[in-house]
Amino acid sequence: MKLLITAMITTALAATAPLAHAEVAVIVAANASVSPSQSEVANIFLGKNNSLKGIDQKGWNPTKEKFYSMLTNKSESQLKSYWSGLVFTGKGQPPQSVDDDASVVATVGSEANRIGYVDKAAVNNKVKVLFTLP
Amino acid sequence: MALEKGEYRFNGFGTAGLTHLGGEDQGRSFGISGQTTDAWRGDQLSKLGGQLQYGLTDTLSLTVQTTLKPEQDTWKANLEWAYLSWGATEGLTLRAGRLRSPIYMYSETLDVGLTQPWLRLPDEVYSQVQLSNYEGGDILYNLPIPIGMLVFQAAGGQAVNRNLFALDELHDIDYKKIFAANASLTTDDFGMLRVGYAEADIDTNLTASVIDPVGTPANIDFLNLHRQKGKFTSIGYQYDNGTWVSSDEWTRNNTKGDQQGNVDAFYLMGGRRFGDALIHLTYAQLDEDNGRQSSWTYGVNYNLAPNIVLKSEYKRVDTRGNGYRGTFVESAQETFDHAAFAASNGAMGTPARNFDGDIVSVGVNFVF
């Protein structure tokens, strides 16, 4: 009985774990030869570094929340305020954004000068992982 | 991220806000264009703006921004930005056309309330220079450094036939030979520091009709500036680590021929976020030759959505000194009566006095 309960708990944890603790992978094309640091990646997505083209995710999902809060310390509304300061001075526009993890992987994988972030589970052989966010 | 050839973006912003001045005599007004009064009014804070950016080539783009906002008692459409921008190299950008004048730390986003912690910018600092744009050009240079980014800006041009709100009326003013330069250091961990300087040759003639002490109408020249140099210095700092927020600015304004020395002003603001709410406190001060205005502002902001912030503020403002009015508005007649009182040792006119008030503001800032 005890074994059964342990097994049930383990199964339940395993089922919820990917949702609660999904790692975010920062990716570039498999053939890309760049390896920007975490702070360089943050600057690319904040429009301060144009060495690579950031591919963002549309909407606000847990992957996006983890990426921005860990790399830039910004919430969704703080990010909006930040970009308003650049957009309305004509100094910048937010990165291009696509629908979901699969679209990010496809867009980033097709050109060597692009960078994106996805749930680690979405990574395939078209892209390589620069680093992951736990 | 620059726009590519043929790409365009339309963005908008606005504020819908009400503000009210309590604790002063009936009809007294306050603020940069005198629209804060003892009536709940929406026309000091409210505004609407739209901006179009279009990529002419991969490095050349056009930006046009228009606003609809009140000027004294009339709503007015304004062309705020209309410029061509050329990304010459990775860090160097040249712009020409109508540009926002880089005077204060928040000059370039003066009307975009979402980029500021307050609903009303500190009046002590932000009511000094009323010029918001000019015709000319500027150079922007971004230099990445190990701790963040250095940005240099140098601008030149002129702004003629603009309006100056003074003595409770609008007057013509010209700013020629405008030169401005500033440097800002944005660090990854320690906030942003900006140092700026701007100067211009100013032409204006503040003439108004008054009734003199014997009851005769008279035209009085209150101030006549002809190519007088105005100089403005600003040092600003912003910090935001996601939880703690600070915004601070010190300014010095000196206009030759205006019969007074340096006008110094500053504000210090600190705040803390609790989830979607921000609670903040600001002290602001304005010092002129004949007195001081100081204020405390208590504010609570709440993010209704990522692009909509509800803001409420209570500002307590006092002036002290020799009949000093601060940013409370006096008419030409009142100003004349005070001068007559002083010149006649109290035999004529009325004495100048100090003011105080409680200003409550409520509204939303939004972008789309």
Quick take:
The complex is a heterodimer of chains A (134) and B (368). With 134 residues, chain A is α/β, with parallel strands linked by helices.
Describe the structure.
The complex is a heterodimer of chains A (134) and B (368). Chain A has a five-stranded mixed β-sheet with strand order 3-2-4-1-5, sandwiched between helices. Helices cover 44% and strands 20% of the residues of chain A. Chain A has one domain: 3-Layer(aba) Sandwich (D-Maltodextrin-Binding Protein, domain 2), CATH 3.40.190.10. Chain B has 368 residues and is mainly beta. Chain B has a domain of 255 residues. In chain B, 4% of the residues lie in helices and 64% in strands. A 16-stranded antiparallel beta barrel of chain B has the order 1-3-4-5-6-7-8-9-10-11-12-13-14-15-16-18. In chain B, strands 2-17 form a two-stranded antiparallel sheet. The two termini of chain B are 18 Å apart. Chains A and B meet through helix 2 and helix 4 of A and strand 1, strand 3, strand 4, strand 5 and strand 7 of B.
SSE order and pairing:
The complex is a heterodimer of chains A (134) and B (368).
Chain A lengths: L1 H19 L3 E6 L8 H8 L7 E5 L4 H11 L3 H12 L8 E3 L2 H9 L4 E6 L7 E7 L1
Chain B lengths: L7 E15 L6 E2 L16 E9 L4 E12 L2 E14 L4 E9 L22 H4 L6 E13 L2 E19 L2 E19 L4 E20 L5 E24 L3 E12 L7 E12 L2 E12 L2 E15 L2 E14 L6 E2 L2 H12 L12 E12 L1
Antiparallel strand pairs in B: 1-3, 1-18, 2-17, 3-4, 4-5, 5-6, 6-7, 7-8, 8-9, 9-10, 10-11, 11-12, 12-13, 13-14, 14-15, 15-16, 16-18
